[in-house]
Amino acid sequence: MWFLLMLVILLTNGMSSFGLKMIAAWGLPETVKYPYLTVWYASGLAAIALPMLWKGMRLGKIEVVWGALAGALSIGGQVAMAVALNRGVPGHVVFPIAIGGSIFVVALAGRLMFGERLSAPTAIGLALGFIAVILVGVS
Amino acid sequence: MGILLSFLGGLSFGLLGTALKAAERRKADAAGLVVSAYAWPALLMLVRTLLLKPGGHIPTKVFAIAVIFGVCAAVASLAFQVSIGFGKVTVGWLMMNLSAGVPAAVSVWVYREELTVMKVVALGLVLVSIVFLSWGQVIERRAAGRNPEGGA
Q1: pTM, two decimal places
Q2: Shortest Cα distance from B102 to chain A (angstroms)?
Q3: Are both B29 and B57 inside the same structural domain?
Q4: Is residue B45 located within the same domain as residue B111?
Protein backbone atom coordinates (compact mmCIF):
# COMPACT_ATOMS: atom_id res chain seq x y z
CA MET A 1 0.00 0.00 0.00
CA TRP A 2 2.81 2.46 0.96
CA PHE A 3 4.67 1.82 -2.29
CA LEU A 4 1.51 2.32 -4.35
CA LEU A 5 0.75 5.61 -2.56
CA MET A 6 4.32 6.85 -3.10
CA LEU A 7 4.09 5.98 -6.80
CA VAL A 8 0.77 7.83 -7.07
CA ILE A 9 2.29 10.87 -5.29
CA LEU A 10 5.34 10.87 -7.56
CA LEU A 11 3.38 10.73 -10.80
CA THR A 12 0.30 12.83 -9.98
CA ASN A 13 1.96 15.54 -7.89
CA GLY A 14 4.83 15.74 -10.35
CA MET A 15 2.56 16.26 -13.33
CA SER A 16 0.13 18.58 -11.52
CA SER A 17 2.45 21.56 -12.02
CA PHE A 18 3.14 20.79 -15.68
CA GLY A 19 0.15 22.83 -16.90
CA LEU A 20 1.79 26.18 -16.12
CA LYS A 21 4.75 25.09 -18.24
CA MET A 22 2.38 24.19 -21.11
CA ILE A 23 0.68 27.59 -20.85
CA ALA A 24 4.08 29.31 -21.01
CA ALA A 25 5.04 27.17 -24.03
CA TRP A 26 1.78 28.13 -25.81
CA GLY A 27 2.75 31.78 -25.39
CA LEU A 28 -0.52 32.74 -23.68
CA PRO A 29 -0.72 35.94 -21.60
CA GLU A 30 0.37 35.85 -17.97
CA THR A 31 -3.17 36.68 -16.77
CA VAL A 32 -4.55 33.35 -18.06
CA LYS A 33 -2.93 31.65 -15.07
CA TYR A 34 -5.67 33.01 -12.75
CA PRO A 35 -8.64 31.37 -14.51
CA TYR A 36 -6.36 28.34 -15.03
CA LEU A 37 -5.70 28.07 -11.29
CA THR A 38 -9.39 28.63 -10.50
CA VAL A 39 -10.36 25.65 -12.67
CA TRP A 40 -7.32 23.71 -11.37
CA TYR A 41 -8.40 24.06 -7.72
CA ALA A 42 -12.11 23.63 -8.50
CA SER A 43 -11.43 20.40 -10.44
CA GLY A 44 -9.34 19.01 -7.60
CA LEU A 45 -12.05 20.00 -5.15
CA ALA A 46 -14.76 18.32 -7.25
CA ALA A 47 -12.68 15.16 -7.78
CA ILE A 48 -12.61 14.52 -4.03
CA ALA A 49 -15.87 16.18 -2.93
CA LEU A 50 -18.22 14.45 -5.39
CA PRO A 51 -17.38 10.88 -4.25
CA MET A 52 -17.71 12.13 -0.65
CA LEU A 53 -21.17 13.54 -1.37
CA TRP A 54 -22.13 10.32 -3.17
CA LYS A 55 -21.23 8.35 -0.03
CA GLY A 56 -23.15 10.81 2.15
CA MET A 57 -20.01 12.00 3.97
CA ARG A 58 -19.92 15.47 5.50
CA LEU A 59 -17.15 17.82 6.51
CA GLY A 60 -16.58 18.08 10.24
CA LYS A 61 -15.31 21.11 12.13
CA ILE A 62 -11.83 19.59 12.42
CA GLU A 63 -11.52 19.17 8.63
CA VAL A 64 -12.79 22.72 7.95
CA VAL A 65 -10.42 24.34 10.45
CA TRP A 66 -7.28 22.33 9.61
CA GLY A 67 -8.05 22.46 5.90
CA ALA A 68 -8.38 26.25 6.07
CA LEU A 69 -5.03 26.43 7.89
CA ALA A 70 -3.45 24.21 5.23
CA GLY A 71 -4.93 26.37 2.46
CA ALA A 72 -3.66 29.56 4.13
CA LEU A 73 -0.15 28.15 4.54
CA SER A 74 -0.14 26.96 0.93
CA ILE A 75 -1.18 30.39 -0.34
CA GLY A 76 1.29 32.06 2.06
CA GLY A 77 4.15 30.00 0.63
CA GLN A 78 3.13 30.73 -2.96
CA VAL A 79 2.79 34.47 -2.29
CA ALA A 80 6.16 34.66 -0.50
CA MET A 81 7.86 32.92 -3.44
CA ALA A 82 6.06 35.07 -6.01
CA VAL A 83 7.04 38.30 -4.25
CA ALA A 84 10.65 37.10 -3.93
CA LEU A 85 10.72 36.40 -7.68
CA ASN A 86 9.13 39.78 -8.43
CA ARG A 87 11.84 41.48 -6.35
CA GLY A 88 14.41 40.09 -8.75
CA VAL A 89 15.68 37.06 -6.84
CA PRO A 90 16.40 34.40 -9.51
CA GLY A 91 14.29 31.24 -9.60
CA HIS A 92 17.37 29.06 -9.13
CA VAL A 93 17.80 30.74 -5.72
CA VAL A 94 14.13 31.01 -4.63
CA PHE A 95 13.00 27.45 -5.42
CA PRO A 96 15.85 25.52 -3.74
CA ILE A 97 15.58 27.69 -0.59
CA ALA A 98 11.79 27.34 -0.38
CA ILE A 99 11.65 23.62 -1.21
CA GLY A 100 14.75 22.66 0.77
CA GLY A 101 13.53 24.77 3.70
CA SER A 102 10.13 23.07 3.72
CA ILE A 103 11.73 19.59 3.77
CA PHE A 104 13.98 20.67 6.65
CA VAL A 105 11.01 22.05 8.65
CA VAL A 106 8.93 18.91 8.11
CA ALA A 107 11.88 16.62 9.01
CA LEU A 108 12.46 18.65 12.18
CA ALA A 109 8.76 18.55 13.09
CA GLY A 110 8.61 14.84 12.29
CA ARG A 111 11.38 14.19 14.80
CA LEU A 112 10.48 16.70 17.53
CA MET A 113 6.67 16.80 17.36
CA PHE A 114 5.71 13.38 16.05
CA GLY A 115 8.64 11.27 17.35
CA GLU A 116 9.56 9.86 13.94
CA ARG A 117 12.76 7.80 14.00
CA LEU A 118 14.43 7.13 10.68
CA SER A 119 16.31 3.95 9.80
CA ALA A 120 19.77 4.36 8.24
CA PRO A 121 18.57 3.80 4.62
CA THR A 122 15.69 6.25 5.11
CA ALA A 123 18.07 8.87 6.56
CA ILE A 124 20.43 8.39 3.59
CA GLY A 125 17.45 8.57 1.20
CA LEU A 126 16.32 11.77 2.91
CA ALA A 127 19.77 13.36 2.60
CA LEU A 128 20.12 12.35 -1.06
CA GLY A 129 16.55 13.45 -1.79
CA PHE A 130 17.23 16.82 -0.16
CA ILE A 131 20.23 17.36 -2.47
CA ALA A 132 18.26 16.05 -5.48
CA VAL A 133 15.34 18.41 -4.89
CA ILE A 134 17.70 21.39 -4.60
CA LEU A 135 19.53 20.38 -7.79
CA VAL A 136 16.21 19.98 -9.65
CA GLY A 137 15.27 23.49 -8.46
CA VAL A 138 18.61 24.94 -9.55
CA SER A 139 18.65 23.20 -12.93
CA MET B 1 14.47 40.94 1.53
CA GLY B 2 13.90 38.59 -1.42
CA ILE B 3 16.05 35.88 0.18
CA LEU B 4 14.16 36.31 3.47
CA LEU B 5 10.88 35.88 1.58
CA SER B 6 12.24 32.68 0.01
CA PHE B 7 12.96 31.34 3.51
CA LEU B 8 9.48 32.43 4.62
CA GLY B 9 8.07 30.48 1.65
CA GLY B 10 9.99 27.42 2.83
CA LEU B 11 8.77 27.91 6.38
CA SER B 12 5.18 28.29 5.20
CA PHE B 13 5.31 25.12 3.08
CA GLY B 14 7.05 23.26 5.91
CA LEU B 15 4.35 24.32 8.36
CA LEU B 16 1.79 23.14 5.81
CA GLY B 17 3.25 19.61 5.89
CA THR B 18 3.39 19.78 9.68
CA ALA B 19 -0.21 20.98 9.94
CA LEU B 20 -1.41 18.13 7.72
CA LYS B 21 0.32 15.59 9.99
CA ALA B 22 -1.09 17.32 13.08
CA ALA B 23 -4.58 17.10 11.55
CA GLU B 24 -4.03 13.39 10.87
CA ARG B 25 -3.05 12.89 14.53
CA ARG B 26 -6.38 14.53 15.47
CA LYS B 27 -8.18 11.94 13.32
CA ALA B 28 -9.24 14.38 10.60
CA ASP B 29 -10.74 12.61 7.58
CA ALA B 30 -8.18 12.65 4.74
CA ALA B 31 -10.69 13.37 1.95
CA GLY B 32 -12.50 16.04 3.99
CA LEU B 33 -9.22 17.75 4.75
CA VAL B 34 -8.26 17.86 1.05
CA VAL B 35 -11.69 19.25 0.13
CA SER B 36 -11.38 22.00 2.73
CA ALA B 37 -7.77 22.74 1.77
CA TYR B 38 -8.76 23.13 -1.91
CA ALA B 39 -11.95 25.12 -1.29
CA TRP B 40 -10.22 28.22 0.09
CA PRO B 41 -7.63 28.67 -2.69
CA ALA B 42 -10.37 27.93 -5.28
CA LEU B 43 -12.49 30.73 -3.84
CA LEU B 44 -9.53 33.10 -3.69
CA MET B 45 -8.52 32.37 -7.29
CA LEU B 46 -12.13 32.80 -8.43
CA VAL B 47 -12.24 36.27 -6.86
CA ARG B 48 -8.87 37.14 -8.44
CA THR B 49 -10.11 35.90 -11.83
CA LEU B 50 -13.32 37.94 -11.62
CA LEU B 51 -11.23 41.04 -10.91
CA LEU B 52 -9.37 40.66 -14.23
CA LYS B 53 -10.15 43.42 -16.73
CA PRO B 54 -11.13 41.23 -19.75
CA GLY B 55 -13.32 39.08 -17.48
CA GLY B 56 -11.08 36.05 -17.07
CA HIS B 57 -11.74 34.26 -20.35
CA ILE B 58 -10.16 30.81 -20.47
CA PRO B 59 -9.35 29.06 -23.79
CA THR B 60 -10.72 25.51 -24.15
CA LYS B 61 -7.30 23.84 -24.21
CA VAL B 62 -6.28 25.69 -21.03
CA PHE B 63 -9.54 24.63 -19.38
CA ALA B 64 -8.88 21.00 -20.36
CA ILE B 65 -5.37 20.86 -18.92
CA ALA B 66 -6.53 22.71 -15.78
CA VAL B 67 -9.10 19.96 -15.15
CA ILE B 68 -6.61 17.14 -15.79
CA PHE B 69 -3.78 18.57 -13.68
CA GLY B 70 -6.14 19.82 -10.96
CA VAL B 71 -7.48 16.29 -10.50
CA CYS B 72 -3.87 15.00 -10.48
CA ALA B 73 -2.99 17.44 -7.69
CA ALA B 74 -6.01 16.48 -5.58
CA VAL B 75 -5.26 12.77 -5.99
CA ALA B 76 -1.65 13.44 -4.92
CA SER B 77 -2.83 15.41 -1.87
CA LEU B 78 -5.22 12.61 -0.90
CA ALA B 79 -2.52 9.95 -1.38
CA PHE B 80 -0.14 12.00 0.79
CA GLN B 81 -2.75 12.45 3.53
CA VAL B 82 -3.59 8.73 3.52
CA SER B 83 0.11 7.75 3.50
CA ILE B 84 0.96 9.78 6.63
CA GLY B 85 -1.76 7.87 8.48
CA PHE B 86 0.64 4.93 8.73
CA GLY B 87 3.89 6.24 7.23
CA LYS B 88 6.30 9.01 8.12
CA VAL B 89 5.42 12.59 7.20
CA THR B 90 9.12 13.29 6.56
CA VAL B 91 9.24 10.65 3.82
CA GLY B 92 5.83 11.52 2.36
CA TRP B 93 6.74 15.22 2.17
CA LEU B 94 10.09 14.46 0.56
CA MET B 95 8.30 12.27 -2.01
CA MET B 96 5.91 15.16 -2.79
CA ASN B 97 8.96 17.33 -3.51
CA LEU B 98 10.93 14.65 -5.33
CA SER B 99 8.01 14.49 -7.75
CA ALA B 100 9.41 17.74 -9.24
CA GLY B 101 11.80 15.42 -11.07
CA VAL B 102 8.90 14.03 -13.14
CA PRO B 103 7.98 17.27 -15.00
CA ALA B 104 11.72 18.04 -15.33
CA ALA B 105 12.22 14.70 -17.10
CA VAL B 106 9.03 15.10 -19.17
CA SER B 107 10.15 18.59 -20.26
CA VAL B 108 13.38 17.15 -21.65
CA TRP B 109 11.35 14.70 -23.70
CA VAL B 110 8.40 16.92 -24.75
CA TYR B 111 10.07 20.32 -25.11
CA ARG B 112 13.52 19.01 -26.08
CA GLU B 113 15.02 20.92 -23.16
CA GLU B 114 18.75 20.60 -22.84
CA LEU B 115 19.82 17.66 -20.69
CA THR B 116 22.59 19.30 -18.68
CA VAL B 117 25.01 17.40 -16.45
CA MET B 118 23.35 18.95 -13.39
CA LYS B 119 19.93 17.77 -14.56
CA VAL B 120 21.22 14.22 -15.13
CA VAL B 121 22.82 14.21 -11.65
CA ALA B 122 19.62 15.60 -10.08
CA LEU B 123 17.35 13.04 -11.75
CA GLY B 124 19.81 10.25 -10.93
CA LEU B 125 19.81 11.33 -7.27
CA VAL B 126 15.99 11.35 -7.27
CA LEU B 127 16.02 7.69 -8.33
CA VAL B 128 18.74 6.68 -5.85
CA SER B 129 16.90 8.52 -3.08
CA ILE B 130 13.66 6.65 -3.87
CA VAL B 131 15.54 3.33 -3.75
CA PHE B 132 16.95 4.17 -0.29
CA LEU B 133 13.57 5.40 0.99
CA SER B 134 11.90 2.19 -0.21
CA TRP B 135 14.65 0.08 1.36
CA GLY B 136 14.21 2.01 4.62
CA GLN B 137 10.46 1.43 4.49
CA VAL B 138 10.99 -2.34 4.18
CA ILE B 139 13.41 -2.35 7.14
CA GLU B 140 11.12 -0.19 9.29
CA ARG B 141 8.10 -2.37 8.56
CA ARG B 142 10.05 -5.49 9.50
CA ALA B 143 11.16 -3.81 12.73
CA ALA B 144 7.59 -2.70 13.46
CA GLY B 145 6.43 -6.28 12.87
CA ARG B 146 8.90 -7.49 15.51
CA ASN B 147 8.02 -4.65 17.90
CA PRO B 148 4.44 -3.42 17.15
CA GLU B 149 4.65 -0.68 19.80
CA GLY B 150 7.73 0.92 18.28
CA GLY B 151 7.99 3.16 15.19
CA ALA B 152 6.37 6.51 14.41
Answers
A1: 0.85
A2: 5
A3: yes
A4: no
